[in-house]
Amino acid sequence: MDPVTHGLLGGAAAQTISKHPRMAAAVGLVTAPLADLDILIRSSDDPLLSLEYHRQFTHALVFIPLGALIGALLLWPFVRKQTTPGRLYGLTLAAYATAGLLDACTSYGTHLLWPFTGNPVAWNLIAVVDPVFTLSLLCGVAAACYWRRSGWARIGLAVALAYLALGAVQHHRALAVAEDLALARNLHPERLIVKPTMANLVLWRSVTVADGNAYADAIRVGLPGNTRVYQGESTQLVEPDRWGGLPEGSRAYRDLHRFHRFADGFLAVHPNDRNFVGDLRYALLPTSVAPLWGVVVDRNNPDRAVDFVTKRKLTPAKRQDFVRMLRGRSPGTGHENPGAGR
User: Which of 33, 206, 235, 329 matches a 20 to 30 Å C-alpha distance to 248?
Assistant: First the structure.
């Protein structure tokens, strides 16, 4: 989730347990985003290092007490006349605890259970940017500061949690439709995921894996009984051991395996670039198999490190297609299957 939303959620959490909502808001706004300082762990010689450590140990449940302590130590010189060390630590503890939990609710996920497991937790309830969720927190925090009443923060937090609960309902509905679509295709899915698209809980991206192939579809879940499926593209998944003829043990071979673990096995070659291997879980259009980001492999120089590249160019045509699917209309590209919904 973006730093602003992290800060607002941390501020709301701190305000709910404080009689000084303005100070609590400041404490939360500073403390909660501290978990994302792991983005500073990077290396010019290893483009994948930041991927491996972002949303990792600083977001884990076991790190919360230490993260809160760091926040308290940083803030103590500024608030020591307004509170005690114990109360300040309580506020930073409440704020910092929200960071990993919020990221676990997103479609990107986080290593919430590090170091006990290397698998990230992603509940896929909300996109990494969602204005409804952010505004509900902003209104609650701002009202609590203006009227100096923590009750407003509790209201904003309750609305935000209700929105996450709605995300869980929508996720369940989208998953059910995706399972029906796989059945209609006579597929026996080995894996099936659904993720919300950017800034909404209506249009979802579904990726179904069967027999080494991946199928990307868009699923619109509107009011109960009103769903629509946009059948998308399919592609073959990449097996790092066999792709590109890379010598075993070469730098590119090792990096491709590392990115394969990061992408949770959802690797595919970009349809317009045979050297670009991307994370198929994310694309600009929910029906597309063109990954949003990935690695570029120099197969002629396998001892060279891969380059991490993002392809975020959203053309007017793609933007129009996204908006039309979001509104339940037929896009200009892709294929629609109205009968596959519920």
Answer: 235
Contact 198, 286 (CB under 8 A): no
As for how many domains the chain has, the answer is: 2
Could you read off the pLDDT of 50-105 as tens digits, one per residue?
999 999 999 999 999 999 999 999 999 999 999 999 999 999 999 999 999 999 99
Listed residues 123, 151, 184: the one ending a domain: 123
Q: Which of 89, 104, 123 is the last residue of a domain?
A: 123
Give the model's pLDDT for residue 37.
95
The parent domain of residue 14 ranges over 3-123
Whether 109 contacts 121, CB under 8 Å? yes
Enclosing H/E stretch for 144: helix 131-147
CA angle 112, 113, 117 (to 5 degrees): 130
CA pair distance 4, 2, nearest whole angstrom: 6
The answer to whether position 141 is within a domain reads no
Residue 157 lies in a domain: no
Other C-beta atoms closer than 10 Å to the C-beta of 80 total: 11
Q: Which amino acid does the sequence have at 18?
A: S
Residue 300 inside a domain? The answer is yes
- Residue-wise DSSP of 24-72: HHHHHHHHGGGGGGGGG--BTTBTTHHHHHTTSGGGSGGGHHHHHHHHH
Same domain? 96 vs 184: no
Same structural domain, 115 and 177? no
Phi first, then psi, for residue 119 (nearest 5°) are -90, 125
Within a 10 A sphere around the Cβ of 260, how many other Cβ atoms? 21
